[in-house]
Amino acid sequence: MRASKFYIATIKEAPNDAEIVSHKLMMRAGLIKRLAGGIYTLMPMGLRVVRKVENIVREEMNRAGAVELVMPVVQPAELWQESGRWQQYGAELLRFKDRHDRDFVFQPTSEEVITDIARNELKSYRQLPKNFYQVQTKFRDERRPRFGVMRGREFVMKDAYSFHADFDGLKAEYENMFGAYTRIFNRLGLKFRSVAADTGSIGGTGSHEFHVLADSGEDALAFAPASDYAANVELAEALAPATSRGTPAGGMQKVPTPNKKTCEEVVEQLEMPLTRSVKAIALMHEPGNETADKAAPKRFFMLLLRGDHALNEIKAGKVEGLSPFRFASEAEIRDYVGCEPGYIGPVGLDPKRVTIVADRSVAVMNDFVCGANDAGYHLVNVNWGRDLPEPAVVADIRNVIKGDPSPDGKGELDICRGIEVGHIFQLRTKYSKALDAKVIGVDGKPTLMEMGCYGIGITRIVGAAIEQGNDERGIVFPAAIAPFEVAICPIGIKKSDAVREAAEKLYAELTAAGIDVLLDDRDERPGVMFADMELIGIPHRLTIGDRGLKEGKIEYQARTDAGATAIAPTEALALIQSKLKS
Ligand code: ATP
Ligand code: MG
What does the pLDDT look like over 248-306, one tens digit per residue? Predict the structure, then answer.
């Protein structure tokens, strides 16, 4: 490609809304242009990266035996009503009407449509297993679109759906996809980790996420250095403490703690460790539209966590009777507890009105500190069974932290951060049941198909790769997904025939060898050319100038090299080929 024909859209300053380095660099390198919140144009340079990611994903999906199709982005509401997700999906699902007043959605994912295809097309177990995939635009009206294409509203996903005659078939395909994903992320040149994951709103049983490791990642991952245990913190179990509850040391006392509303403030005043305090979180169970029993009453829950622990909302959602829940309002807290937030606690409450849920760690505490249900006061030396009844529910409702024992019993957990780029699920019969998708089984009887689904965030991968690969000069792309593999930078191409001829010759030679080359024939000053190529993250650069040519030399520099190396023009092809191979 010649730069003069192509379109280089680099800019000096990233816009103010770009918070993280990948978003800033994608904007500065001109890979994307913002159209609206979470909606971006993929500029020619950005599209090349996306296509390279797609190609690797396609090759490995095909190699793993999946077959490509493309489903419509616009899908009729009826299918979503049939699965129940028309009600469940919430505001992320973009819904609209056509001119006949019929409801439609813009696909955020395609379980419904593929299951509809499967129930119409697949008749017998003999046609199974089948794995269909597409690379298609998705729309999710994210509450907080941010980080550019990393959490966009419109984005590209590879989504695959597999169909099986039995659970064993699904498990085998799940393993197959796990292997394919591992190959994909290795080929993309990313540092990643696969972790056990929650199944979220898609539902089902087994699930793994693939995360690109980066400090800016939105997800916390728990892993055990001593074993292969790895799970999203959303899911990672906090084991019940091995120690049992100690015996009470002193009597319960009410102490004034004016204006001290957080555990941190209270323990500072009382000169105690944070691990002796208990924080109370007020939640309201409120059956929503999605619940059959709309008339079921609201229920007030008080969740108790050790002061240094954080609530895990996904785990809380699994406490019996709590889901669906929301945080209680201040008025509700006053109504059920009789006190303003900041001073609430579990002592002296009516168990008929307030359900106490203690985290496993809280259940073994003694002589703890908590709110007194009286503004400006806390209680110290509080003890279960003496000052208040044993908790109604004891459950794992907190996030694990570094140093917690690993759930597999092997050593301690550590925490790192990741960007979710892939997710595989065993859906089982969730959708086949809802849409009545059956085949004739081995026994001759109609049987529901077992299903798996497998997603990869194509556009998110571009952002994630840049989070992992960047320096003060710009993007450092893995060669496999860089928009071009090599940049040829001729200095003074319009002035010097020798430079132009050498550049054209090299360009022809590398291109003929199948190398993806950008010839910078814009006649820019060297500083501008180098800065652009470095910002864009092209992994290899060949610089041609009059002075060098007189000595029979050109210059080679890798994106990560500190300086250039003089080479003979005839050596360039072999050098680049060997670099691209390694
Ligand atoms: P997240 O937890 O990040 O919201 P998700 O679990 O809702 O993602 P899935 O339904 O598992 O996402 O979608 C499959 C893949 O699509 C994800 O692993 C991710 O790589 C990508 N993806 C999801 N939402 C977005 C988004 N808003 N922008 C870009 N990519 C996304
Ligand atoms: Mg996911």
Answer: 998 999 999 999 999 999 999 999 999 999 999 999 998 865 555 556 688 999 999 99
pTM of the predicted model as reported, rounded to 2 decimal places: 0.91
580 close to 477: Cβ distance less than 8 angstroms:
no
Best of 42, 157, 194 for a ligand 1 pocket test (most atoms within 8 Å of beta carbon): 157
Residue 330 has which token pair? 């201040």
Q: Any idea which residue has 């509401």 for tokens? A: 77
Q: What distance in Å separates the CA atoms of residue 417 and residue 402, rounded to the nearest whole number?
A: 12
Q: Which atom of ligand 1 is nearest to the CA of 218?
A: 3
DSSP state of 336: H
Atom of ligand 1 nearest to the CA of 422: 18
**H or E element in which residue 54 lies:** helix 44-63
What angle (nearest 5°) sits at the alpha carbon of residue 540, between those of residues 538 and 545?
Answer: 110
Residues with CB under 6 A from ligand 1: 109, 140, 142, 151-152, 155, 157, 200, 420-423, 455, 457, 459-460
Contact 157, 458 (CB under 8 A): yes
Please name the residues in contact with 24: beta carbons below 8 A apart, sequence gap of 6 or more: 14, 18
Residue type present at position 110: S
Q: How many CB atoms lie within 10 A of CB 268?
A: 12
- The pLDDT tens digits of the residues spanning 502-520 come to 999 999 999 999 999 999 9
pLDDT category, 205, cuts 50, 70, 90? low
534-571 in b/e form (b: 16+ CB < 10 A) is bbbbbbbbbbbbeebbeeebbbbbebeeeebeebebee
- Give me the residues paired with residue 554 across strands: 567
Ligand 1, residue 461: give the atom nearest the CA: 20
